[in-house]
Design a protein that fits this description.
Blueprint: H1 5-17, E1 39-43, E2 46-49, E3 54-57, H2 72-84, H3 94-105, E4 111-115, H4 118-133, E5 137-141, E6 167-170, H5 175-185, E7 189-195, H6 210-223, E8 226-230, E9 253-256, E10 267-271, H7 276-281, H8 292-307, H9 310-331, E11 336-339, E12 346-349, H10 356-367, E13 370-371, H11 386-404
Parallel strand pairs: 3-13, 5-6, 5-7, 7-8, 8-9
Antiparallel strand pairs: 1-2, 2-3, 4-10, 9-10, 11-12
The structure holds 4'-deoxy-4'-aminopyridoxal-5'-phosphate.
């Protein structure tokens, strides 16, 4: 029902000059058929595609949109910095201000360094852990996503066995498997890398248990290894001081990106004092890593996160959405599974191994101006309103009706 003339024309042109038309996770082929590939504009929690269709957006740029597109305070800070300069011979003054703010906000942080993408940050964490310990092995959870370079890419295409030679795997929230992997790594254990919560694609999300978090901490302490938390996706949505703060377990290193500068390209590593020397000695850099505009945007973003308690606001909106979806799914006699923190909702259908129900649901939502994802965790932003949630719930009735009719 949605007309896609412009989108189709752009896809045809892109097909000729961009391999496959688009790369990676943003390829529209990974979504139900009606979904657009190209977008023209965003405002607050709303998005327009190139054919002019408007969506209340629950992907939020896959995380970066935390406060809403074109947030006036963030954009004013960015614009002020842009007038002075962005990419200079070194960092601008704002880097120090941002570093002070990050160290002040993040519970475990004694220091911080900045990069551009989440993969830069997770890779830097691994490098620092290895440099500080002089060891090689990094334990990671099976199926966890930590980025798109050979050591961590979810695809093995173009990746050699040697790229992964010093990774060992455990199951998220499974203390026994973590102990076993640590035992196998022996004296060569450099670190354990764990996502803030389990947010694997297409499956139920899981918050870490206290026992699991403590076990990871215990193993690292007893072996002199580093506990690394990947906050790239969850950072600043659950708890601005760190997603594990509520568990009473602090990491040695964390990787941040996505929401940190409300859509401007920035990543950060935060670390504990014992890793400061290694962090100062490893060679990590990038042409744009000192970009001052994104840093100015991050200062503004993080001040708002703290001032307005953004995680609490997202939790409130997310709970309304979750409760509303549960009630409505029941009215249609459907069983859904909602998992993960309410600020980052995941909705899966019972008995839906090929996501056919999820796709039908999301397509119907899309046709009514609500952008959901059938497999991936979604994101709320502080620009969403109670009215937006109501629009989503009304669209969900059509979505559930479509699933019930399958
Ligand atoms: N870690 C996690 C948990 C992520 O969700 C992502 C991005 N989806 C990354 C790392 C990699 O970040 P980027 O795509 O910015 O390199």
């Amino acid at each position: 029902e949605l007309i896609r003339t412009r989108d189709a024309a752009l896809r045809a042109r892109a097909e000729k000059v961009v391999p496959g038309g688009m790369w990676g996770h943003l390829h529209a082929a990974k979504l139900p058929e009606a979904y657009p590939q190209f977008f023209s504009r965003g405002e607050g929690g709303v998005l327009w595609d190139v054919d002019g269709h408007r969506y209340v957006d629950f992907m939020c740029s896959w995380g970066p949109n935390l406060l809403g597109h074109h947030h006036p305070e963030v954009e004013e800070a960015a614009e002020r910095q842009r007038r002075d300069g962005d990419c200079l011979n070194g960092p601008a003054e704002v880097m120090v201000e941002l570093a002070e703010l990050v160290v002040d906000m993040v519970g475990h942080a004694d220091w911080t360094q900045f990069q551009k993408n989440g993969t830069d940050a997770t890779t830097t964490c691994v490098t620092i852990a290895r440099a500080a310990t002089g060891r090689r092995k990094i334990l990671v959870a099976k199926g966890a996503y930590h980025g798109a370079v050979p050591w961590c890419s979810p695809s093995l295409l173009g990746v050699t066995a040697e790229d992964r030679a010093h990774l060992a795997y455990f199951t998220f929230n499974d203390v026994e498997s973590l102990d076993a992997a640590a035992k196998e790594a022996g004296d060569d254990l450099a670190g354990i890398l764990i996502s803030a919560f389990r947010h694997d694609l297409g499956s139920d999300q899981e918050l870490p248990t206290v026992e699991f978090a403590r076990a990871a901490r215990r193993i690292c302490d007893s072996k002199g290894a580093a506990l690394l938390i990947d906050e790239v996706r969850a950072g600043f949505r659950l708890n601005a001081a760190g997603s594990w703060e509520g568990l009473g377990v602090r990491p040695d290193l964390s990787a941040w990106s996505k929401a940190i500068a409300n859509g401007h390209a920035l990543a950060a590593v935060t670390g504990a004092d014992w890793l400061r020397r290694a962090a100062s000695q490893v060679f990590v850099t990038g042409s744009f890593w000192a970009g001052a505009v994104a840093m100015a945007a991050a200062v503004a973003t993080l001040k708002i996160v703290r001032r307005d308690d953004v995680p609490a606001r997202l939790a409130q909106l997310g709970q309304t959405l979750r409760d509303g979806l549960e009630t409505r799914s029941r009215q249609f006699g459907l069983s859904i599974r909602q998992s993960g923190p309410v600020q980052m909702p995941t909705l899966l259908f019972e008995g839906d191994p090929d996501y056919r129900k999820g796709s039908a649901f999301c397509s119907a939502m899309l046709a009514r101006g609500v952008y959901f994802h059938p497999k991936h965790n979604m994101f709320l932003c502080a620009a969403h309103t109670e009215a937006d949630i109501a629009v989503a719930l009304e669209a969900a009735e059509h979505g559930f009706a479509s699933v019930a009719a399958l």
